[in-house]
Design brief:
Order of helices and strands: HHHHHHHH
Number of strands: 0
Mean pLDDT: 79
Shape: globular
Number of helices: 8
Radius of gyration: 20 Å
Strand content: under 5%
Structural class: mainly alpha
Helix content: over 70%
Length: 208
Amino acid sequence: QLESAIVIVLCLLIFCLPFSIALVESFSGLALLLYFIKKAVESNTQVQSTGLNGGYWHIWLGKVFEARTFVHWPLYILTGVVFLSVLFSQYRVISLVAFIAKTLQGVSLVLIVTDNLKKRWHIISFIFMLVAISALVGIKAIYQYLGGAEFFHHYIISGGRVAAWFRHPNDLGAFLVVVLMVCLGLLLVVKRPRSTCLMMAVMGLMLT
């Protein structure tokens, strides 16, 4: 049940990504909390089944940071390098806050996604939400570019750079890079004609 709850929270996080940073941070924290609780339950079950009297926290940490896929070790190495750069930074306090709030948050989300997106409907739900919100972002960006104004509030777009629901055009660009890579990967894997057409349509919206 916890795994399904985490997937739902991840889908809500993806949905809120273009709209609200506050909601994204809230859902990130909720997903991390549920992930820790899930690992605590798994650790407690392992302790009871093996009859161990101690080492609970060691087991819990092992389950939280377990390298389950080929992505984990490079991610841990990158995190270590970033932490070393924090130690040699001129502004250590600011760098440490950014490291905890941004780097560790991103690492934890990768751990959560790789640990919980295992069942077919979990993966389909996550991808569907990502593709759906990407299509909406693409449609709004095209409207902004052609109309010269924001969709809801009719704010004038200056300099010809659109941002869709994001705060800055660069944020939209970063989002497009990730979505295009996901769609390209799905095109190489999915063999169904309908799914292929859907991915090509979304990529067309993104590239437009």
